Amino acid sequence: MSRWIHALRLWRGVLVLMLGAVLYLALAPNPPQSGTLGWDKLNHVLAFVALGSVARLGVVRPWPWIATALLGFGGLIELLQMLTPTRSAEWADLLADALGIAIGLMLATWWRDRAL
Predict the structure, then answer these.
(1) Which helix (H) or strand (E) covers residue 56, if one does?
(2) d(Cα 49, Cα 11) in Å, to the nearest integer?
(3) Which of 7, 33, 57, 77 has the fewest CB atoms within 10 Å of its CB?
(4) What is this structure's pTM?
(5) Phi-psi region for residue 31, left (φ > 0), alpha (ψ -120 to 50) or beta?
(6) Lowest-pLDDT range, 15-29, 34-48, 55-69?
(7) Which residue has better confidence, 50 or 40?
(8) Dihedral of alpha carbons 55, 61, 62, 66, sign
(9) DSSP E strands: which ranges in the chain?
(10) 20-26, Cβ contacts within 8 angstroms, sequence gap of 24 or more
């Protein structure tokens, strides 16, 4: 099997783990405070920079598809937070997710184009 396919599988595995971690942190009643950056919106941006980067490296789809899927994931999180007693949904969180996705996709595209 080629090196490229192994790398693709690795990135996909990391993506699945990261999606699970972000979902847990977004819905946990008392998420660990050690992982926070001190500002909720910055946490959203950084989480989605990471998701966008890893998705771009592990998903063989055009970037608009990846961006839409990740923004849908962010929207799902906000909807689920409306159903929890300890969390709240905010449009600003979704905007921060979108900013993170854009940055992550650009960084991963830049890195991939130079690595190949």
Answers:
(1) helix 40-58
(2) 14
(3) 33
(4) 0.90
(5) beta
(6) 34-48
(7) 50
(8) negative
(9) none
(10) 22/47, 22/51, 22/73, 22/77, 23/77, 26/77, 26/80, 26/81, 26/87
Domain extent, residue 43, equals: 3-28+39-115
| Count of the separate structural domains present in the chain | 1
Q: Return the number of other C-beta atoms located less than 10 Å from residue 40's C-beta.
A: 13
Q: What is the pLDDT of residues 43-92, one digit of tens each?
A: 999 999 999 999 999 998 999 999 999 999 999 999 999 999 988 899 99
The two three-digit tokens of residue 60, written as one number: 């063989």
Q: For residue 84, give both structure tokens.
A: 């929890």
| The two three-digit tokens of residue 28, written as one number | 């946990």
> Residue 95: inside a domain, yes or no?
yes
Is 33 within the bounds of a domain? no
> In this predicted structure, what is the pLDDT of residue 1?
64
